[in-house]
């Protein structure tokens, strides 16, 4: 790669820090950028919200670590405050989706609206030719199709392409994923060789604004701060035939596939099959009824092809840890894609993403209706 000016999205973790060190060692002009997205102590005084912010992505400690790495490498470093936009485009939609009975993915929203949108703008403003991140993915240009392709990484256990399905051709053309051909142990070893103090730093495991994964406590605290209360979405537990078998305290307490906490006792295990937000009903049934052969997506983004002009055979991933399953996708409306699986899939969940693969290549993806 010829010498370039490259902005690195530095999260304060070992992955992005190693990317900065690698590019600097290759002789590139490297500029560190960190996004300030959420005040970690903002809701600390509310009931149930912890004071500690350990282990969360984008914490103040992470900003400190990123700055320390930049100083070690001798590169310019800037913190870019996007808290207002993050709240508008990620946090509020997250709250609205849960209240309406859907299960959102804030990390994908953050990638689409901030990390590969706003950071690319900032990168251009500071004179960078490209933006590099610590995501485990690969990007390459395909001459025959004239399109940029997003590919799964060498380290399948760290594959993050599921969260990157929203990237546009323009964004991919200016993005570099230096870790795409490396494994996590390789990255840590490189960090040690580069003398980075955080080579052994654990990976962040939580959504940056939802401590402990306790989204119910977060919803209460966030709405209370906004002088709002959680809307009353209490209603009925019903079977697929419409028989009422119980009551529930709010649809936000449930997600498709959930078994525990239903509040009803029957002779066999029951699972949440569907959440009807408008009717405030939670539909339950047996595990067999949890399987479905079809799903529809909207707000879809295609990467490897410009359009779905005819049905296409792919493998579809319906959640981050899901093994992509063989299916056929086809356009069924201006903003809808239908996926029909060879075999029924368990707990297809509205609000999650469905990402389409052709081998290692990401064809595209969309949000499950």
Protein model, in words:
Helix 1 (14-25) runs parallel beside helix 2 (60-73). The protein has a 6-stranded antiparallel beta barrel. The two termini are 42 Å apart. 24% of the residues lie in helices and 28% in strands. The chain has 3 domains: 5-134 and 178-215, HUPs (Rossmann fold, 3-Layer(aba) Sandwich); 235-285, SH3 type barrels; 291-368, Translation factors (Elongation Factor Tu (Ef-tu), domain 3), CATH 2.40.30.10. The protein is built from 8 helices and 17 strands. It is globular. The protein has helices at residues 14-25, 60-73, 83-99, 106-115, 118-125, 169-173, 184-193, 215-225; strands at residues 5-9, 29-36, 77-81, 130-132, 138-142, 147-151, 175-176, 235-238, 244-248, 271-276, 281-285, 291-302, 312-317, 325-333, 336-346, 353-358, 361-368.
Helix count from the secondary structure assignment: 8
The largest beta-sheet arranges its strands as 12-15-14-13-16-17
**Main sheet record:** 6 strands, antiparallel, barrel
**Per the principal axes of the C-alpha atoms, what is the gross shape?**
globular
Q: What is the count of β-strands?
A: 17
CATH architecture of the largest domain: 3-Layer(aba) Sandwich
Order of helices and strands: EHEHEHHHEEEHEHHEEEEEEEEEE
Give the structural class: alpha/beta
């Amino acid at each position: 790669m010829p010498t370039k000016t490259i902005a690195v999205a530095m999260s304060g973790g070992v992955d992005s820090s190693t990317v900065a060190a690698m590019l600097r060692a290759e002789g590139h002009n490297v500029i560190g950028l960190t996004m300030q997205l959420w005040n970690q102590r903002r809701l600390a005084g509310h009931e149930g919200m912890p004071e500690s912010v350990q282990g969360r992505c984008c914490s103040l400690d992470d900003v400190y670590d990123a700055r320390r790495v930049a100083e070690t490498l001798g590169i310019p470093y800037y913190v870019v405050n996007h808290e207002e936009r993050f709240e508008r485009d990620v946090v509020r939609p997250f709250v609205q989706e849960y209240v309406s009975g859907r299960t959102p993915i804030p990390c994908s929203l953050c990638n689409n609206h901030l990390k590969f949108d706003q950071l690319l703008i900032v990168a251009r403003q500071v004179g960078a030719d490209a933006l590099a991140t610590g995501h485990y993915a690969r990007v390459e240009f395909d001459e025959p199709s004239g399109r940029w392709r997003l590919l799964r990484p060498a380290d399948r256990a760290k594959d993050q392409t599921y969260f990157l399905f929203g990237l546009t051709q323009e964004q991919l053309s200016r993005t570099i994923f230096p870790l795409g051909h490396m494994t996590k142990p390789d990255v840590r070893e490189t960090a040690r060789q580069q003398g980075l103090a955080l080579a052994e730093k654990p990976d962040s495991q939580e959504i940056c604004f939802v401590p402990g994964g306790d989204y119910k406590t977060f919803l209460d605290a966030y709405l209370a701060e906004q002088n709002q209360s959680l809307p009353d979405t209490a209603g009925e537990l019903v079977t697929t035939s419409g028989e009422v078998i119980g009551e529930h305290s709010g649809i936000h307490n449930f997600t498709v596939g959930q078994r525990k906490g239903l509040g009803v006792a029957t002779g066999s295990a029951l699972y949440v099959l569907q959440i009807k937000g408008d009717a405030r009903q939670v539909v339950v049934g047996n595990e067999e009824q949890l399987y479905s052969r079809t799903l529809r997506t909207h707000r879809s983004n295609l990467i490897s092809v410009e359009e779905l002009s005819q049905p296409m055979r792919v493998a579809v991933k319906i959640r981050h840890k899901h093994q992509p399953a063989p299916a056929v996708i086809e356009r069924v409306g201006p903003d809808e894609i239908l996926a029909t699986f060879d075999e029924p899939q368990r707990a297809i969940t509205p609000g999650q993403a469905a990402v389409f693969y052709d081998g290692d290549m990401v064809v595209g993806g969309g949000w499950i209706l």
